[in-house]
Design goal:
single chain, 686 residues, alpha+beta, 7-stranded mixed β-sheet, 5-stranded mixed β-sheet, 18% strand, globular, ABC transporter permease
Length: 686
């Protein structure tokens, strides 16, 4: 049997080698693919080198559909199939050998494509981790889709001979290709159909082709995507077995029925595995934004969202964390009460569903979870000064902005992925639909113990101990980053960055750190803020955290000895880190917004924008547009007092001495820290 199959496969290979059209098509596709990868990698766009090739995948799916059909009907066109019908098992062997040929052709294509990608990656000095990551990408989004498409065409050819089948192949190619959503978008609008879920399952090629490449997360290679492809493969293999058996005997043999049944049973199992909830970063930010907006409309957010005064404090954390497909946490928390309480309110991101809360004796405690808040209902009132230990067990899909699964983890300390004392909004909706995440309540440094072993390299603001255990203290939450990340050191600062951005970060690191240190020193001098000493041994994390305003060039968070600087999803050139990162407005905002006493956010925005304007004038730097953006935004909101005040401040800066302006900002900062005054008072002061 195997010998006959081998000979039949060899005949198919010999025949396909004579097809000049197929050879030219594959060479042309490879040439176009190489050109795209070359252009993208020449600009250090590691992600786009592959994710921008959806059209190649779509054309390849069409081509293999047609090729499979042609292979199936080739003998019928010359009537040689009548000869094979009288040879024992010949029709079935021919069918399987043709399927094997499609398998080999797809393999040949991705091997050549992958070798080309590796050569280009090597020439651009890009980290070797992308060698095998790109191989997985080619297997998942090229080889498997091409092979499955070929099988579909092959099976259609066994049942249909009409030329109308080519129309059917085109329709099938549209539905199972990566451009199905783009092509059928107008159809869905006309008929008011939402076929998003169906089309994503049918799509054999790249998913979410419009989504920007996330440099930390990397290529979309999640477990669920492999399971979907496995379902397709097992279903088609089962059909192929049945069709081959029928071709041989015009009946279904027992062996064929058993084999096909096993294949379909495994497909059902894979389908169940693929259907489980999964953290897959796709373009679903609008869902998150809509929820925050609706919550905010139902319960208006007070201006003093920065100031939280919980009646108890957390004194230590110990957490066991796993991230396969979603976040799963068992967190033990020690607390100390500041007042008599029979109820403890915590903030925890709403998608993390709490399954149990236990006290230190292991007794289950009643709790209520609503939105982003969890209330632990004590059986009796605990006196002030008492201490207690609670264990929270919870799991779920993280925010689309902050992911956690088997591929990568992005959980900054300011995001409440661990329970935080008090009730506060996780994020608030600000101008033009931007979400601004709320800093957690100010607290003293708290001891943390983390047990975690995740994908790729791991970074935390704790110190790594034995194996996968991390310990340390933090006053601003626990940051956990895992995936394709790298580290370098510049002037005693640790720089942590996605490996996809390694070229830009390393090239610009000296200039960036020099500018960053200089900016901190100037801010300290201008505003009498003790920030320089904090910056000497800090870590700077370049991460794809979301932008939170259309007025600030980037988002920066500062906590303890850690700075998180946003890098946009996509790829970053050297100029971004030299010119755009660490803008004065974003740096000063990061230093002030976590201060416990500062409550008025819009007042703080005005301070940051006008200080940035003065900074650029005083130090002869190219000015940001932050102040003008803020004025325009307030004009659109009909905030006449705020607009007039900011314009008067700008005029004051333009026409006053440095000493006068410095005293003015010192007074404004005092108003912010003491929560006294507003824009009207500031305008009167001018």
């Amino acid at each position: 049997m195997l010998r006959k199959l081998g000979k039949s496969l060899w005949v198919e290979i010999v025949l396909i080698k004579r097809s000049l059209f197929i050879l030219l098509f594959m060479l042309s596709a490879l040439a176009i693919l190489f050109s795209i990868m070359w252009q993208r990698l020449d600009h250090q766009d590691v992600g786009g080198a592959l994710t921008a090739t959806a059209a190649i995948v779509q054309i390849g799916i069409f081509a293999f559909l047609v090729l499979g059909f042609i292979l199936s009907v080739r003998e019928k066109r010359v009537s040689s199939d009548e000869v094979f019908q009288v040879i024992h098992s010949a029709p079935g062997i021919k069918l399987i050998s043709k399927g094997s040929l499609l398998f080999i052709l797809g393999l040949f294509f991705i091997v050549i494509a992958w070798i080309s990608e590796v050569v280009l990656l090597f020439m651009q000095n890009i980290d070797p981790v992308f060698y095998w990551k790109s191989l997985l990408y080619f297997v998942l989004y090229y080889w498997i889709p091409f092979f499955l498409s070929g099988l579909i065409g092959l099976l259609l050819g066994t049942f249909m001979r009409s030329r109308l089948v080519y129309i059917l192949l085109v329709v099938i190619g549209i539905f199972i290709g990566p451009l199905n959503m783009l092509i059928l978008e107008n159809v869905m609008v006309v008929f008011n159909w939402d076929l998003t879920r169906v089309l994503s399952i049918l799509n054999l090629g790249q998913s979410d082709i419009a989504a920007a490449f996330d440099p930390l997360y990397g290529y979309p290679l999640e477990f669920s995507r492999w399971m979907v492809k496995l379902v397709w493969l097992l279903l088609l293999v089962g059909v192929l077995i049945v069709v081959a058996s029928w071709s041989n005997n015009h009946r279904f043999t027992q062996k064929a029925v058993i084999s096909a049944s096993i294949s379909w049973l495994l497909a059902s199992t894979a389908c169940i595995a693929a259907s489980f909830p999964d953290q897959v970063p796709v373009t679903v930010m609008t869902t998150e934004n809509s929820y925050i907006k609706e919550e905010q409309q139902a319960t208006p957010i007070a201006e003093d969202i920065f100031a939280m005064n919980p009646e108890f404090k957390i004194t230590s954390y110990e957490a066991d964390v796993s991230t396969f497909r979603k976040l799963k946490v068992s967190a033990t928390i020690n607390i100390e009460l500041n007042a008599p309480l029979d109820r403890l309110d915590f903030t925890l991101y709403r998608n993390f569903k709490v399954t149990s809360v236990q006290n230190q004796t292991g007794e289950k405690i009643d709790f209520k979870q609503e939105g982003d808040h969890v209330s632990v209902l004590l059986k009796e009132e605990y006196p002030a000064g008492s201490t207690e230990k609670f264990q929270f067990a919870y799991s779920g899909i993280s925010s689309p902005y902050f992911y956690a699964n088997e591929q990568a983890v992005l959980l900054p300390g300011y995001f409440p992925w661990l329970p935080v004392e008090g009730k506060y909004p996780v994020a608030v909706m600000r101008e033009n639909g931007f979400l601004r995440h709320t800093p957690p309540p100010a607290r003293d440094s708290v001891p943390y113990t983390l047990h975690y072993s995740g994908p790729g390299k791991t970074y935390s603001n704790l110190q790594q101990g034995n194996g996968a255990t991390y310990t340390g203290t933090s006053s601003s939450g626990l940051t956990l980053i895992s995936g394709m990340i790298g580290e370098t050191t510049e002037k005693d600062k640790k720089l942590v960055y996605p490996l996809a951005l390694a070229g830009g970060v390393k090239a610009a690191a000296p200039a960036f750190v020099n500018r960053f240190d200089q900016m901190l020193s100037r801010i300290e001098e201008d505003l009498d803020l003790a920030v320089t000493s904090k910056g000497k041994d800090d870590s700077i994390l370049f991460l794809p955290i979301p932008l939170e305003s259309n007025k600030y060039w980037e988002t920066i968070w500062h906590s303890d000895h850690q700075w998180i600087v946003s890098v946009h999803n996509g790829y970053e050139g050297k100029w971004v880190f030299e010119q755009q990162a660490a803008s004065p407005s974003a740096v000063i905002l990061s230093l002030l917004r976590t201060k416990e006493t500062i409550k008025k956010e819009t007042f703080l925005d005005g301070f940051c924008a006008t200080y940035s304007y003065w900074y650029s004038k005083r130090y002869s730097e190219q000015p940001e547009n932050t102040l003008q953006f803020l004025i325009n935004d307030y004009q659109n909101s009909n905030w006449s007092v705020e607009v007039a005040t900011l314009e008067n401040v700008r005029n004051f800066i333009d026409n006053s001495s440095e000493q006068e302006v410095q005293r003015f900002f010192g007074t404004w900062l005092e108003m912010l820290e003491t929560n006294t005054g507003d824009y009207k008072d500031l305008n009167d002061m001018l």
